[in-house]
């Protein structure tokens, strides 16, 4: 979605009533953010809306991007927010071989998640329980981590549920999302 550099469009202030609605929607979609919501979106601070090409909107606090949205789709967290609160989002892990493809904007395929270095929920290799016990469904927002790396490298929407991935072990796993080094990551909001 953001393979090329992006030029920002109009920037406008979000009305306080709309801001309350966005805050409620964020808490509904990401309930684990509740203890941090006052840090992320303080009630007294002004939230801005930045329009991008292809009907994408980015919600920012000052020059800090928080969430983005394509048309009326779900709110997706910006990777900078994911890096600050990594345990607040469902996550999966890709193997080392898939990293270069993800960072070049290629579609994430199921083998990158089901191979030896990949991690899905209920993985016997996941001793810390980092990737959860609940299977994730198609359409859920998920953060992708990379084997051997500390920070998440991608955020997007699952195209296939994790239980199905374990069965078929092939196909597209992910809708195009936001990844490290893409146009949204390099966006200058200052």
TrEMBL record:
Residues 90-181 form the PUA domain. SUPFAM superfamilies: PUA domain-like. GO terms for biological process: formation of translation preinitiation complex. The lineage of its organism: Eukaryota, Fungi, Dikarya, Ascomycota, Pezizomycotina. PROSITE patterns: PUA. Keywords: Cytoplasm. It is found in: Cytoplasm. This is Translation machinery-associated protein 20. Involved in translation. Pfam families: Pre-PUA, PUA. CDD domains: MCT1_N, PUA_MCTS-1-like. The keyword Endoplasmic reticulum does not apply. One of its GO terms (molecular function) is RNA binding. It comes from Zopfia rhizophila CBS 207.26. It comes from the Eukaryota.
């Amino acid at each position: 979605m953001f393979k090329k550099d992006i030029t920002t469009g109009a920037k406008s202030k979000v009305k306080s009533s709309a801001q309350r609605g966005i805050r409620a929607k964020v808490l509904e979609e990401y309930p684990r953010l509740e203890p941090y919501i006052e840090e992320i979106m303080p009630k007294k601070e002004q939230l801005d809306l930045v329009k991008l090409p292809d009907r994408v909107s980015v919600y920012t606090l000052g020059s800090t991007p928080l969430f983005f949205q394509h048309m009326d789709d779900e709110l997706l967290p910006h990777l900078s927010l994911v890096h600050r609160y990594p345990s607040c989002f469902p996550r999966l892990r890709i193997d080392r071989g898939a990293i270069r493809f993800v960072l070049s904007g290629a579609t994430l395929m199921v083998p990158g998640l089901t191979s030896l270095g990949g991690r899905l929920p209920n993985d016997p290799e996941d001793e810390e329980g980092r990737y959860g016990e609940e299977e994730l469904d198609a359409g859920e927002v998920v953060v992708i981590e990379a084997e051997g790396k500390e920070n998440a490298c991608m955020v997007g929407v699952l195209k296939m549920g994790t239980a199905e991935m374990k069965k078929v072990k092939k196909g597209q796993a992910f809708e195009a999302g936001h990844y490290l080094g893409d146009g949204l990551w390099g966006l200058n909001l200052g």
